[in-house]
């Protein structure tokens, strides 16, 4: 009798494991949703639609984009955090909810550390630009003017706590200068302000600002990447003049807490394959973005480094959004 009980137990474990394996092999069997916590047309939205289309073809299922803007990306992130951990609702985001929100807000309705990383998709450097009327032609001019006239120069940002704002604050801290912030309601108006001459300088992602630089409407002073970019070979990395400065906008995918490893690994592997496709690389190049990819563990490490970088900036400025 005892032997029969052991056999029955072993059989039940076998059947359970077989069923779980079959369920994993069956993923996905219905459409997948990318929640983008920003408005349509934003950088995250553009990259999400590119990956969604290609991922859907590989998986044989529709992957659609659901925009949930608001509260610096926190509303969309909360929706994913509370979703079933089954791989059918995923977060496609810029750094905010996973990196800076924890330092900017006293209370969050989600725990950034509990999201399951999938992959970093791409990066694009923050680019420091000046309006030609400002008389600033390079980084040395900017530092000289800022030190001679503290808080007389100004910069436009997409709002307090945004990447352009934090990039400018990091620059100020490392360069030991004072430059006054003029916040606007989004990156579009902030860019328009520096193009029109309402503000002297601004940090803008490279893809958005490059057309204005090529037309002579803006002067590129430096890029936030660790090295110079092919699109602006004569423009220095800001770190060449202000050591330690690095500021990149990036886009990545994450899953709700407790999403099974086999689902996460499957998605990560497919994303890495997509990023290696020639037409994907061409499209990213056109957007002046660099493909990244890597494993979920790589993304987890990347996020930790980004949190450390930006939490220091936020702490030093005392910035809070609630």
From TrEMBL:
Pfam families, sorted: TctC
Family: Belongs to the UPF0065 (bug) family.
Domain of life: Bacteria
Keyword Cytoplasm: no
Range of residues in the leader sequence: 1-22
Keyword check for Ion transport: no
Designated name of the protein: Tripartite-type tricarboxylate transporter receptor subunit TctC
Protein keywords: Receptor, Signal
Organism: Pigmentiphaga kullae
Entries under CDD domains matching the protein: PBP2_Bug_TTT
